[in-house]
Specification:
mainly beta, 2 domains
Length: 327
């Protein structure tokens, strides 16, 4: 009997050791993605290979300044998860909004971005759990839509992106690197950064958005008490914004943090700093510009009001146009 107990204990120890080492005795665990800096202006870092951090094993990139891998959701301009924002000043905050409503994320003379929130509310809660399901982007005289399609059961190989340009559905070819460019709008491009569910939307001289469709996993739902069922995995967008030309009067949930006179209202030192302002940021539709802080006028007037920010590099490692360094 003692031998049997010892044998069972030994097996348990072996299994615990395997799990601790990050592997499984029954399935192969995929390795984290390897990425590198691709900027000739940083020769000491250029083409050096780095492994993605554990927080984002498949969706990181290299910050060529610090020569280290970083998660897209941990950089200024990120809007991810429930939804968690990192402003242009590098300060993290949450803006919950309300489910099935639209809110203005960025509004400037020649750029207006609304987000449609999806979500759910569990019994006894005072607010909704929310996620960004889609974006309505206005610039010049164009409208661009990107969204995550409703998805009961998630499969990484199934593309759940929904795209449209000026009211017409847009279909991207399969495979990483596939690119779409409209003849009627030079400088506009949408490029796949993976075989499915991730793209970069770029408008030359205006903005660059990295978007990835992700689900709420069973583990996330259990940890955060989301109450997600098999009927809907609440596919949503994880986003990373970079702006090339903004006026000093830019506003919106995220946009205000790039404003020339912005002072953060976020309460520092709390676990989950929440930013309010639902009424002033609320929009009547995904392409509406009627939020209380709207700045959008379109191409003509925008050209007279745009101020191009210098490229700054902060001691924290945050850098790029539109970045505000603060102590």
């Amino acid at each position: 009997m003692a031998l049997r107990l010892l044998s069972a204990t030994a097996i348990a120890v072996v299994l615990l050791f395997i799990v601790a080492e990050g592997a499984s005795p029954w399935v192969d665990v995929p390795k984290s993605k390897t990425v590198s800096c691709k900027n000739k202006y940083y020769p000491d870092c250029n083409h050096q290979k780095h492994t993605c951090p554990a927080d984002c094993p498949y969706t990181c990139e290299v910050d060529c300044v610090t020569c280290s891998p970083v998660c897209n959701c941990n950089k200024p301009g990120a809007v991810c998860q429930d939804p968690r924002f990192i402003g242009g000043d590098g300060i993290t905050f949450y803006f919950h909004g309300k489910k099935d409503r639209d809110f203005c994320l960025v509004t400037d003379p020649n750029l207006h971005i609304n987000a449609h929130f999806i979500g759910r509310r569990n019994a006894g809660m005072k607010r909704d759990f929310t996620w960004v399901q889609s974006l309505g982007i206005l610039f010049d005289n164009h409208q661009l839509f990107i969204g995550a399609k409703n998805t009961p059961t998630w499969n990484d190989a199934d593309d759940r992106l929904d795209l449209a340009f000026d009211g017409h559905p847009l279909f991207l070819a399969d495979g990483q690197g596939a690119k779409w460019e409209p003849a009627a709008a030079p400088g506009v491009s949408i490029t796949r950064t993976g075989d499915a569910n991730s793209v970069v939307i770029a408008v030359e001289g205006n903005f660059r958005i990295k978007a990835r469709v992700v689900p709420i996993t069973e583990k996330e739902s259990r940890v955060h008490n989301y109450g997600i069922t098999e009927e809907d995995c609440f596919a949503h967008l994880d986003l990373s914004f970079k702006f090339e030309s903004l006026s000093g009067e830019v506003n919106g949930v995220l946009g205000q943090t790039y404003g020339s006179k912005y002072e953060s209202r976020v309460k520092m030192g709390v676990v989950m700093p929440v930013l309010g302002g639902e009424k002033q940021f609320s929009s009547s539709g995904i392409f509406s510009t009627d939020c209380g802080v709207s700045r959008f006028t379109g191409r003509n007037q925008a050209q007279n009001n745009i101020v191009e920010y210098a490229s700054l590099e902060c001691a924290s490692g945050i850098h790029g146009r539109g970045v505000v360094c603060k102590r």
